[in-house]
From TrEMBL:
Signal peptide: none annotated. This is Sodium/bile acid cotransporter 7 isoform X8. It comes from Equus przewalskii. Belongs to the bile acid:sodium symporter (BASS) (TC 2.A.28) family. It comes from the Eukaryota.
């Protein structure tokens, strides 16, 4: 039972080891033009997933303050830009 508990605790490392082992056994899955389409998956989907996950980890107080600040900065920039006209 201790092995199962350890695997549950270290689930991320177990997943990495399984992914590496799968890539070693069947490398044709991840080749360009293969079923995973890494030219699309890595460049768009992986980057979007990384930014989405990092956005989810923000504290709500920080996100609320940033949402409040961006319209203020936009308005002040817009107002200063129209002074020259």
């Amino acid at each position: 039972m201790r092995l199962l508990e350890r695997m549950r605790k270290e689930w991320f490392m177990v997943g990495i080891v399984l992914a590496i082992a799968g890539a070693k056994l069947e490398p044709s899955v991840g080749v360009n033009g293969g079923p995973l389409k890494p030219e699309i998956t890595v460049s768009y989907i992986a980057v979007a997933t990384i930014f989405f996950n990092s956005g989810l980890s923000l504290k709500t107080e920080f996100a609320d303050s940033r949402l409040h600040a961006s319209p203020c900065v936009f308005c002040s920039d817009f107002n200063q830009g129209s002074w020259w006209e």
